Amino acid sequence: VEALLASHPAVQDVAVIGVPDAKWGESVQAVIVKRPGHDEVDAAALEAWCRGRIAGYKRPKSFVFIDEREMPRTATGKIQHRRLRTQLVGG
Considering the entire predicted model, what is its pTM? Predict the structure, then answer.
C-alpha cells in the first residue's frame, strides 16, 4: 500500500497505519507528506489512484496530510509507525 501511494507524483512520503474502526475493529489510514508544489492533491485524488491498482480491502479508508517535520523518524531516517499512530490516534 505504501509503495503504491509513494508512486503517485504528488506524494513525497507516506506511512500506512491502522486506526480504530467501529465496524471492522481497525481500518487502514494513509499519512501523506505532499511533494512541494503539489498542493492540489487531496484524499479523493489518492483514493482514485488506488482504485483499480489494489484490492478494495487494502485501500486506505482515510487520508491524513501532514508536514514533513511532523513525520516521526529514527536517527537513520526510517518512519516510526508506532509513534505516528500514537501521535494521530492516541494510546
Answer: 0.90
CA distance 32 to 43: 10
Output the CA–CA distances (angstroms, integers) from residue 82 to 15, 17, 47, 78, in the order listed: 11, 8, 24, 12
Phi first, then psi: what are they for 5, rounded to 5°?
-65, -35
Please, what are the averages of pLDDT over each run of 10 residues along the chain (91 residues)?
96 95 92 93 95 93 95 95 91 59
* Burial class of residue 20 in the structure, from the number of CB atoms within 10 Å of its CB (0-12 exposed, 13-18 middle, 19+ buried): exposed
- Report the relative pairing of strands 62-65 and 25-34 from DSSP bridges: parallel
For 4, 9, 30, 43, 84, the CA distances from 54, given in Å and listed in that order, are 8, 17, 14, 16, 24
